Amino acid sequence: MMLTKAERTKQFIIETAAPIYNQKGISGANIDDVLDATKLTKGCLYGHFENKEDLSLQVIDYMIENNSKKLVSMISKEKTAKGKIFTYFDFYKDPIETHIKGGCPLINMAVESDDNFPVVKEKIAEVFRQGQNMFVEILKQGIQNGEFSNDLLPEIYAFKAVAAIEGAVVMCRIMNTAKPMQGLIKSLKVELGNYSV
Fold it and tell me: What is the rounded distance in angstroms from the CA atom of residue 34 to the CA atom of residue 48?
């Protein structure tokens, strides 16, 4: 589908603003940062967005959708439940060099929005709920098709794995090393492998 010039400009603004928001946060990012990065005028910017809040929400929606699409696209290429789960883990294997500069946008927005931006908090909460449900369904499918034993508790393993991965993203970024994440992923894969039939 061909975008109009106005739609292309708006998309360019959102894509250019995403790493700024991901690194500086909603409160830290300002219109001047976006104007400097896009080389557009304030009038042009406000021709596409009502105000900073509108820009912020659309950038956040873009980051959420971009992150989810990349992950789901990679997972959907796998045929087995084990392959899908391993792909999920590998998606986070390098928390330093992320696909949107600045780390995992979900974690970044979750931390900032917790007490300050209830609308964003609910958007992120819904993404986490959907992600958990998808993870659980993949594990259940693996049990049903005989890949995993009935000893595997999908809800518990999924929550533990996702919480560990997301927490490791934060810790690895603060310590500026991806090495602990590699060890965590290896450990999670070994644990899941213990349930293989």
Answer: 13
